[in-house]
Amino acid sequence: MALIGDKEYFKGIGEIKFEGKDSDNPLAYKWYNPEQVVAGKKMSEHFKFAIAYWHTFCGQGADPFGPGTQNFEWDRPSDPVEAAKAKADAAFEFITKMGVDYFCFHDFDLIQEADTFVESEKRLATIVEYIKGKQAESGVKLLWGTANCFSNPRYMNGASTNPDFNVLARAGGQIKLALDATMELNGENYVFWGGREGYMSLLNTDIKRELDHMGKFLGMARDYARSQGFKGNFFIEPKPMEPMKHQYDFDSATVVGFLNEYGLQDDFKLNLEFNHATLANHTMQHEMEVAAAHGMLGSLDANRGDYQNGWDTDQFPNNITEVTEAMLTFLKAGGLQGGGINFDAKIRRNSTDLDDVFHAHIGGMDTFARALVTADKIITSSPYEEMRAKRYSSFDSGKGKDFEDGKLSFKDLYDIAHENGELELQSGKQELFENIISQYI
C-alpha cells in the first residue's frame, strides 16, 4: 500500500501499476514494469528512478514573465517548519504512490533557508529528522543530496569560485551541512552543480585562480565526507552556461579534464542531464559516451529541452529516439556507476492540476522503459553491433592490430601509406544505422 500521512494530498489517486501498452488508463504504466528483466537486470535495478524534490514539490510554475500558477496545498502553511513537514508528507505520498524507490534534494528544497546560518542549520536538522521517519515508514531511499549554492544573492559571483573568501567559506559551511544531511539520510551519492561557478565577464575574472580554488574546495569536501564514513560517489553535473555566460563545468569532456587535473578522478563521476547536453550543442548520447569512455558515467538527469529555445526548459522526456540512443550507450557501458535516473523536470506553467504531476512522471518513466527494451533488442537482434565492429575491423589483425598494440613506428606508417597508394572510400552507412533505430522503435 502507498504511504499516506495524516492528510492525503493526492486524493482519488491510488498506486500506479503496470498495465501494459494496450491499457487506456492514463494513471498506469504502459512500458515501465519494475520486475521485467532486460539485459540481465530488472528495470527497477537498471534505472533507480528518483523524484526531484525541487521541481516536483517546490516549483510553482513561475517563469521570467510571471509568478507561479500552481497553488498546491502543501505550500500554504506560513510557519517554515510546518510547511516543510507538509511538503515532506506530500512528497512521500507521491513517491510511494508512483512506486519509485528514490528521491533527491537540494538542502533548501527540504525547508526554507533562514535569515542566519545558525538558524538555517537548526531548521535543516529538524526536517532531516522528520524525513528519516518518513523513510523508515515507506522504505524510500535517498539517491543523492546537494546544496543550493546558486540562488541566494551572496552567490551572485559564484560559491567555491567566488573572489571573496568569506563567500567561499560560507559555501563550505553550507555544503558541510548538506553532506551531513545526506549521510544522515543514508544517501548513496552527493552532487555538485556549479550553477554560478563560472564568469559573466573575463574583464574582472582570473580563470586560473578560480579553477584552482574550485579544485581545492572539492577535494576538501571529499576529504571531509570520507572522514565521516561516506562511501558513495561524488558527482559533478555539467552545464555550459545559464545562469552564467560561461560555467566551468561546460560539458563531459571539460569536467573529465578538470577532475584529472586536480586529482579528483577516483572519487568523482558525472551526473549528466539531457537538457544541459542540448545547451552545450551536444546530444545526450555524446555526453554519455565521453563519460563512459573515462569510467565516469555516474548518474542521469532525465528531461528534455525545447529544441527551438536556447534555454533550460526542463521538460519531461518523451523523445523516444533520443532516449533510445542514450540507452544504447547506457547498456554498452554496463549501466550507471552508483547513480540512477532523476527526473529533473517540471510540469508546464499551464499544467495546474495535481494529476498532471502523475501524468508527467508516468510518461517519462514509460519513455525510458520503452527505450531500454528497444536498445536491448537493437544490440541483441539487429546487425547494429556487427556493423559497428566491421567499421573498425582493419584494426583487428595485421598492421592495424600492430598499431593498436604499439608495435609500429611513425616511419612504419609512412611505409604502409607509400605501399598502399590511393585507397577506396569506405562508407559509414549512417542512414542504415538510423533506419535500424527507427525499425526497432
The chain-level mean pLDDT equals 96
How many distinct beta strands? 14
Number of helices: 16
Structural class: alpha/beta
How would you classify the quaternary structure? single chain
Commentary on this structure:
It is an enzyme of class 5 (isomerase). Its EC number is 5.3.1.5. Its cofactor is Mg(2+). Keywords: Carbohydrate metabolism, Cytoplasm, Isomerase, Magnesium, Metal-binding, Xylose metabolism. It is found in: Cytoplasm. It is a single chain. This protein has 441 residues and is of the alpha/beta class. The chain folds into two domains: 17-381, TIM Barrel, CATH 3.20.20.150; 384-440, no CATH class. The chain is built from 16 helices and 14 strands. The chain has an eight-stranded parallel beta barrel, surrounded by four helices. A two-stranded parallel sheet has the order 1-2.
Give a topology summary.
Layout: E1 17-18, E2 28-29, E3 37-38, E4 41-42, H1 43-47, E5 49-52, H2 53-58, H3 80-98, E6 102-106, H4 107-110, H5 117-138, E7 141-146, H6 165-184, E8 189-192, E9 198-199, H7 207-227, E10 233-236, E11 246-247, H8 252-261, E12 268-273, H9 274-279, H10 284-293, E13 297-301, H11 320-332, E14 341-343, H12 354-381, H13 384-391, H14 398-404, H15 410-420, H16 430-440
Parallel strand pairs: 1-2, 5-6, 5-14, 6-7, 7-8, 8-10, 10-12, 12-13, 13-14
Antiparallel strand pairs: 3-4, 9-11
Family: Belongs to the xylose isomerase family.
EC number: 5.3.1.5
Keywords: Carbohydrate metabolism, Cytoplasm, Isomerase, Magnesium, Metal-binding, Xylose metabolism
